[in-house]
Specification:
Blueprint (H helix, E strand, L loop, with lengths): L1 E8 L5 E8 L2 H10 L3 E7 L6 H9 L7 H13 L4 H10 L4 H16 L3 H5 L8 H13 L2 H58 L5 H34 L3 H12 L4 H22 L4 H10 L4 H15 L4 H8 L4 H13 L2 H57 L1
Antiparallel strand pairs: 1-2, 1-3
Helix pairs in contact: 3-4, 3-8, 4-5, 7-8, 8-9, 8-11, 8-16, 9-16, 11-12, 11-16, 12-13, 13-14, 14-15, 15-16
Length: 404
């Protein structure tokens, strides 16, 4: 059974679109006609073995931040005792987004066909990453699908929350600074030159601060567009260079050495790694496979390389704690707790506990960083405004003194 997306006309001539499951396009048209509809176009959502289907499945994904909700709802329905096909059908019926309906309909069709849920998920690599598919596959094999889905939902929700907090920590000060720079640039280009003409007609020696302001204003008026072009070229060159592994590795290594951001990045990446590893080992995924998969969720190139080295060392027979200690990229507390988990035989529980501690640490550091950045941004804006005001007032005071 496959999922087909159709466009049809009802008895009043109105266009109606939807998704229907059938064994073939011919049967899909018959089912559409049975609903008193005239089929116009019927397309299979995923076509096997075609380049077009590869391109289509590459594009299809959930709405932003919808995956945690889908996994949570699916886990709740499965835990309540619903068969997986009925749970998928329930989610499909309550979906109000076209791509979500496509994905869920195809998952339901594949499960009804006899395929595993993990196999169906892998048809949509942009919707379900390898972590989700592998965890679901392990949960299906171990008969613990509901528990694995609940763990995945917790992890995805935590990851989404941390991402939102990271963004919110920077968005306010960045908006403040960018707006201030735009306003100051406008003053420099349009307002300051007119005021400077008044000072020039007074034929007095201008203070150094005012001379600096005039120089900046002249530069922005004459070469401001070149400055913007240069910044755009530098940004383009930077992001292009990031595509090269050598430059990306060097840049990420430099980021890890930064005083505050380095420790925050290291802790956040370590939390992603240990949380993923904890989910996979709890789902009975072999430790070597779990390590290889967990390294894929790490974004920092240096940390990713370290995780891959850990996987290689464990593959050769080393303990997980010993391998993590040898790469010298993980916090010492993490290594000690992993060693304790290996000794007690409760590695997956300890990994989840480590991830929880690290996620709380990241949240605390983000709060502190936000509280520090906002007043610094306001101070920066205030200093810029103060410089302009003083540079324009000092000549006025000087002219008044001469007149008196």
């Amino acid at each position: 059974m496959e999922a087909f997306e159709y466009t049809s006309l009802d008895s009043t001539g109105r266009t109606k679109k939807g998704i229907i499951q059938a064994d073939s396009a011919k049967q899909a048209r018959q089912l559409i006609r049975a609903q008193q509809l005239t089929p116009i176009d019927v397309q299979q959502v995923i076509e096997r073995g075609s380049q077009q289907s590869d391109a289509r499945q590459f594009r299809i994904r959930f709405k932003k931040n919808e995956l945690p909700l889908i996994i949570r709802q699916l886990a709740t329905l499965v835990e309540a005792g619903l068969p997986i096909d009925e749970a998928l059908l329930t989610l499909q019926e309550q979906s109000d987004h076209r791509n979500t309906e496509r994905i869920l309909s195809t998952l339901h069709a594949k499960v009804m066909e006899g395929q595993s849920l993990a196999y169906a998920m892998r048809l949509f690599p942009k919707a379900f990453d390898e972590l989700v598919a592998t965890s679901v596959e392990a949960g299906e094999q171990a008969g613990q699908l509901a528990e694995v889905l609940l763990q995945l939902a917790d992890y995805l929700e935590t990851r989404e929350t941390l991402g939102k907090k990271s963004l919110s920590a920077l968005i306010y000060p960045m908006i403040l600074i960018v707006t201030a720079i735009a306003v100051v640039a406008g003053l420099m280009v349009y307002i300051v030159p007119k005021v400077i003409d008044v000072f020039a007609s007074a034929n007095v020696a201008l203070p150094l601060m005012t001379q600096v302001l005039i120089a900046i204003s002249d530069f922005l008026s004459g070469y401001g567009w070149l400055l913007l072009l240069g910044l755009a070229v530098l940004l383009l060159a930077f992001f292009t260079a990031l595509q090269k592994p050598e430059f990306k590795l060097a840049w990420h290594r430099w980021v890890l050495k930064l005083p505050v951001f380095g420790a925050l990045t290291r802790t956040a990446q370590s939390a992603r790694f240990t949380r993923t590893l904890g989910i996979l080992t709890h789902s009975a995924v072999p430790i070597v496979s779990a390590l290889s998969l967990a390294s894929q969720v790490v974004r920092n190139a240096v940390m990713k390389q370290a995780c891959q080295q850990v996987a290689a060392a464990v593959r050769e027979g080393a303990s997980l704690a010993g391998a993590m200690r040898s790469v010298d990229e993980f916090p010492s507390l993490t290594i000690k707790l992993v060693h304790s988990g290996e000794q007690s035989g409760r590695l997956s529980d300890m990994l989840n506990r480590i991830a929880m501690v690290q996620e709380r640490d990241v949240e605390s550091k983000l709060t502190t960083l936000t509280n520090a950045i906002q007043p610094l941004a306001i101070l920066f804006v205030g200093l810029m405004v103060l410089f302009i005001v003083l540079a324009m007032l000092l000549p006025i005071f000087q002219i008044n003194t001469l007149l008196n």
